[in-house]
Design brief:
Radius of gyration: 22 Å
Strand content: under 5%
Structural class: mainly alpha
Keywords: Membrane, Transmembrane, Transmembrane helix
Helix content: 55-70%
């Protein structure tokens, strides 16, 4: 918890935090999002551009490598979003609103990227109900953290928290803002509500057995997630010290400097590529894409297994 003394003394400047807003961290997030969105778009648009029969005759498994690569980036993104927000809460007694908001934007970017991957890989996730529900739980945890972050950001606007005070001080100050209802205030509320709506739609898409309007949902959802990802990235870059102009006075320029931690963030992008190389060499077997005839069979098989378990108990 933040002490009362630390909330009563307003410093002139705050130190930078390269682990949150460093150039390498921001670049790694943007590159991962760009790759994942590009692969998702190729998988979603492929059946609309090429006829499945003729394309499959040329290559029996045209999307195995892309699906495996996208699955790795998807897992990476959902865990990055949860991890970043968890660390932010632990450091809420020292993080200023500037860093707290950047974490929220990066979390929104990871959420949008993961949902875009979900649109393309939903049939793969439906193969196993255990893995599907594990992903559902992770999505809920990410949503809960994002909503709480939104509440913190909203309260910092309502209470007019000084930019150089820790975000944890937001609960110790009285509301002094005369601009309640301004653009930032409304935008924060819309973002929180939008996260809840997107989570509800993603849950329906992941759990639903009805495949009506399947391709329409994929295309519209991909466009929406791409817009959210681009908006979150632009907001984070323009606000960061590394690429833009921060809204708080920083005492140093550590976020512009490259260090081992910054390079490590970029090197982590190589991990999914290693799995792809192993697939190409035949060292890892990957299930082929699910055909249209097998989509409903996945749920029928799951219902059969569940009924057998219930009968046995």
């Amino acid at each position: 918890m933040v002490g009362q003394n630390s909330c009563s003394i307003i410093p002139d400047a705050v130190p930078s935090d390269a682990g949150i807003a460093g150039a390498g961290v921001l670049l790694a997030s943007a590159i991962t999002a760009g790759l994942a969105l590009g692969i998702s778009a190729s998988l979603v648009l492929q059946p609309l551009i090429w006829r499945p029969s003729s394309f499959t005759n040329q290559n029996p498994n045209p999307s195995v490598i892309r699906r495996k690569l996208l699955n790795g980036y998807s897992d990476q993104q959902i865990m990055v979003g949860i991890g970043l927000q968890s660390i932010g809460f632990v450091k809420s007694n020292s993080l200023v609103p500037y860093h707290f908001f950047l974490i929220w934007m990066l979390a929104l970017l990871s959420m949008a990227t993961h949902n875009a991957a979900l649109l393309a890989l939903v049939q793969d996730f439906k193969r196993d109900w255990v893995l599907r529900w594990m992903r559902q739980v992770l999505m809920f945890v990410n949503l809960a953290l994002s909503c709480v972050y939104g509440v913190y950001v909203l309260q910092s606007k309502v209470r007019d928290l000084p930019d150089t005070l820790p975000i944890g001080c937001v609960w110790k100050l009285e509301s002094t803002s005369s601009n309640v209802g301004g653009l930032d205030y409304v935008g924060t509320i819309v973002t929180i509500a939008g996260n809840c709506v997107v989570f509800g739609l993603a849950t329906w898409y992941l759990q639903s057995r009805n495949q009506r309007f399947y391709q329409i949902v994929q295309v519209v959802g991909l466009v929406l997630m791409s817009g959210i990802a681009i908006g979150a990235t632009a907001r984070a870059y323009l606000l960061s010290q590394a690429f833009g102009t921060p809204d708080v006075k920083l005492s140093d320029e550590g976020e512009k400097q490259w260090s081992f931690g910054q390079l490590l963030s970029l090197l982590m992008l190589i991990l999914p590529v290693i799995s792809v190389i192993e697939i190409m060499r035949g060292e890892i077997a990957v299930a082929p894409p699910v055909s249209d005839e097998d989509k409903q069979a996945l749920f029928d098989e799951e219902l059969t297994k569940n009924s057998r378990v219930g009968a046995g108990s």
